[in-house]
Amino acid sequence: MMPSALKIRLYALKQFNCMLFWSIFIFTFFSGLTTFAQGNLLISPRRIVFEGNKRTQEINLANTGKDTAKYLISIIEIRMKDDGGFEEIATPDPGQFFASKFLRFFPRSVTLAPNESQVVKVQLIKTNELVEAEYRSHIYFRAIPNLKPLGEKETKKDTTNISVQLTPVFGISIPVIIRNGKSDTHVKISGLSYKMNAENKPNIEMSIDREGNTSVYGDITVNFIDKSGKTTEVGAAKGVAVYTPNKFRKFQFDLSNEAHVNMSKGKLQIIFAPQSEDKTNAKIEPFAQSEVTIQ
Question: Which range marks the domain in which residue 81 is found?
Fold first, then answer.
């Protein structure tokens, strides 16, 4: 006898309101904080870089939610696309080196009660096998979902129907980079343009061009300079990356212009500079900068 109906129920995970990894692999690079928060999992720092004499580093995890959460920890390999998106890969692209062979980490899973924290240790190994290059892999924290949604009551099953439960898998990853050798990387901004978008908001487009043996990561600041020379910040994007082996990354965003500056005449100055952990007012040399005139 054929079933009279096919019921499909989709259960979202309340405590992991973050990125859907397997179907849509999205990374956000607009957080200026040392801590990376997504859903109820707090991760610090947001990237690990081994260079010089560093051999061991720590990742701090914290559960800021109201429910106990479990995560499996693994290493994955990804490719950055020219538009800044990501996709998982198994074989490195030409000029790309995976870091996974040279990493050891523990524990492999964590269970965090509400407001509980845990340290994951990452260790560099087989350093005698490293050649002069930059190596990158990503540590992936995959949430293990509750099979039964919170608050759902037991219901009497209808044996004449087929019930299918689809549970999406959510996760967060952070890059782990090993740098062996001196950096010779240079950056420039090209293809810079200014226009109004479909919602009549000011928008800029550009290409961040990278040449050399290391990745770059920093903040973009957009200043408007009027005819009198007055400078006003009208836009910013935090944590913009161009990973090896990519030669460029296309980038665009709307300007906030919270100061309500009349940008009818003048020029826009775009500065791409490294992020600094220094809390002083020490001057930071930018990776690159460019200007576009507004008539």
Answer: 5-180
